[in-house]
Amino acid sequence: MATTIDSEIRIPIAHDEKPEPKSRRRTRKPKEPPTGPPATFGTYLIAIIAATVFLIPLAWLGLAAIATPAQFSQGAAGLLDVQPTFQNFYEAVTRINFGKFTLNSLILSTIMSTLTTATSATVGFAFARLRGRGQKPLFTLLLATMMIPHVALLIPTYMLFARMGLVGTYWPWVLWGLAGTPYLIFLFKQFFAAIPLDLEEAAIIDGCGWIRIYLRVFLPLAKPVLITSLILSFVWAWADYLGPALLLNYDNTTLSVATASGYLDPLGNGLPTIQAAGALLYLLPVVFIFLFAQKRFMGSAVSSGVKG
Amino acid sequence: MSTMTEAPVAVAGSSRGRGWRRYRTSTFYLFASPWILGFLVLTLMPVVYTFGVSLTNYDGYSPLWRWVGFRNYIEVLTADPGALASMGRSVVFAAVVVPLTVALGTALALLVNRRLKARGVWRAIFFLPSVVPVVATAIMFRLIFNRDAGLLNYIMGFFTDAKITWLADPYAFYVLILMMLWGVGGGMIIILAALQDVPVEIEEAARIDGASYWRIVRSIILPLISPVLYFQVITGVIGSLQILVQPMLLAETSSIATSASVPSSTTLLMVDVYNEFFYNQRFGYGSAMLWLFFIIILTLTLVLQRLSKRFVFYQVESGTDTDKG
What we know:
CATH architecture of the largest domain in chain A: Orthogonal Bundle
Number of helices of chain A: 17
Helix content of chain B: 55-70%
Number of strands of chain A: 0
CATH topology of the largest domain in chain A: MetI-like fold
Pfam family, one (chain A): BPD_transp_1
Mean pLDDT of chain A: 83
Radius of gyration of chain A: 23 Å
Order of helices and strands of chain A: HHHHHHHHHHHHHHHHH
CATH superfamily of the largest domain in chain A: MetI-like
Largest sheet of chain A: none
Structural class of chain B: mainly alpha
Low-confidence stretches of chain B: 1-17, 317-325
Number of domains of chain A: 2
CATH class of the largest domain in chain A: Mainly Alpha
Protein name (chain A): Carbohydrate ABC transporter permease
Number of domains of chain B: 1
Largest sheet of chain B: none
CATH class of chain B: Mainly Alpha
Helix content of chain A: over 70%
Oligomer: heterodimer
Strand content of chain B: under 5%
Distance between the termini of chain A: 43 Å
Low-confidence stretches of chain A: 1-24
Keywords (chain A): Cell membrane, Membrane, Transmembrane, Transmembrane helix, Transport
CATH superfamily of chain B: MetI-like
CATH topology of chain B: MetI-like fold
Structural class of chain A: mainly alpha
Shape of chain A: globular
Shape of chain B: globular
Main location (chain A): membrane
Distance between the termini of chain B: 33 Å
Membrane topology (chain A): Multi-pass membrane protein
Largest interface: A-B, 107 and 118 residues
Order of helices and strands of chain B: HHHHHHHHHHHHHHH
């Protein structure tokens, strides 16, 4: 099952790696002559120590995932002298209905990412290219909603959805998707605002309406941002824990909830090595996406964060 | 070419007659409506609904609820030491985590802004943890801080015989802080971008004048990137005050159903709220706590806004972009 995740996700990424160089959103500076002060021996020393510390949790997860329970219970001494076994991975996919949870995660993340990307692009276009009464205050409101404490908002949303009978279904994600994501709207707005006026002028002169201009002229240009948005929102939905934990039942929940709470023996005790293997399988797609689309993650973080 | 000459005729003939205008308010609202509707239904409505619930003794399912006025609010503020303690803990948590994340993020950004070999790889290593899903992060930290099989107790075993139960009471708080610090990479990337916007000439000039690296960092770089640091502080405060999932997942038991088993040192405000809702079934009371939380966040943001005027240095009106053009 893990392989299908990869192949399904990799296709769009591998496909988009080529147009990257001519991508026109916020051209990034590295690659030009190196900037910044030179690195000394001390710099490397600090960098190596810091990188080691940052990688330890991942390495430890990997070690626990290939250890036998006996080695694990010996403690770190056993783990550092591990005899690799892949039994944990077998157990991780058989002890819980791994395939079904993965499919749930895939469906939910796909619904969320396609809908929210479509909406965010449209709304971003409106803020960048159209004019209307009340637009300025609405944009301020949009920026303000980026500050809203989302976790705190989720419980109220849960109460409302419970009232409407939507708990246990995927409808909340459809609604969230249709509403767009302020962060992505902002990303699209930035992109569309940078496109020269001539382009839409030509289209207006040709008698196109705004919907045609948007669909035929602007949307095709926005391909790099569309892909970034799809990837980011997919990973967010894949990583979300609280949403599925509150709003779904255990049968139709996502892999994140199943990974967190599904690996128990009949007595209710945790199974750390198996859970580590499960967590690794759950994490792997995200790491792959990150490695292929690193620039997109960083670039989007930058263009949203610099805005003070 | 020919379209260019024909086009104006077409415009004058077909649409201008009906009062052609380039921008119509209705077009804007047509395009922006999904978000506006979404905001009304998915943000405003829940918040308002919660306020309504906070004035009742609703328990989540029973239809026999009553209006109780502001009694819930009064109880939170005067008769619930647990709630006040969790609020205080959240404030302490934010007061520790936010400065640490901003400082560490800045330090890492300064580090990877240097001319290291394979700079991209270093950046990726520090950035990756911030992308790792919280469930996986919590599992990793539970393994490292495991009492018997964890790495930390193993390392400490060289110095002392005492085994510390890290995920239990006094220590869980520190583990949680470390877990937050591990995800510092997101902030690092934003600060790094700000560092790259600092004009090279100013740094050069200072160096020629004999300023040391630390002097340049302190007197030139930090003031110039202070708007970005300020932004980090604001989002950091909002983010760390509403921490909920991390303490729950870090708790020894692995099931969300038992969120009440979160050790008291990591029972932060939102964990307490969550318990009121789903453990004690006090929806009305929990809603009142949520509203108090919203008010706290709003007040804090406004206070920080005020303070920023004193500490944040804005080069030109809202312009990191202006010096590029």
